[in-house]
Amino acid sequence: MSGPLRCRPPAVPTVQVDDQHLRVTRWDFAPGAETGFHRHGWLYVVVPVTDGTLHLEFPDGSTASAELKAGMAYHRPAGMEHNVVNGGAAPLSFVETEVKAFPG
Fold first, then answer.
1. Are strands 81-86 and 38-39 parallel, antiparallel or unpaired?
2. Structural domain for 81, as ranges
3. CA gyration radius for the chain?
4. What is the pTM of this model?
5. How far apart are CA 85 and CA 10, in angstroms?
6. Cβ contacts of residue 60 below 8 Å, gap of 6+?
7. Does residue 6 lie within any of the structural domains?
8. What is the CATH number for 63?
9. How far apart are CA 96 and CA 13, in angstroms?
């Protein structure tokens, strides 16, 4: 085993919609909570419910931070692999909408 073990609480996902076109998930993070490494298979849109700071960890060991503002949406393409961590001292929440397919 290499490197120190981290013991972070898991972020809590609540799926609100999951159909042939979309998956909508609300994510709730206690301070320091993380999603765990994952890869997005679809284009996705994130709408923060609260202000906060996200720390992003990537498989190559690099990191980044992002400041979230409640109600200010952003989107990312499919294929991104990362771990999302609440980098602030307060709880943080956002709603993530993954676009599975466009209606014909």
1. antiparallel
2. 12-99
3. 14
4. 0.90
5. 9
6. none
7. no
8. 2.60.120.10
9. 10
Torsion, CA 31, CA 87, CA 51, CA 39, rounded to 10: -100
Return all residues near 14 (Cβ < 8 A) that are at least 6 apart: 25, 26, 27, 28
- Cα(21)–Cα(64) distance, rounded to whole angstroms? 30
Do the domain assignments include residue 54?
A: yes
Residue 2 falls inside a structural domain:
no
β-bridge partners, 15: 25
Token pair in block for residue 32: 């320091």
Here the tokens at position 4 are: 């120190």
- Count of structural domains, the chain: 1
HSE toward the beta carbon, residue 70, CA cutoff 13 A: 6
21-46 pLDDT, tens digit per residue, is 999 999 999 999 999 999 999 999 99
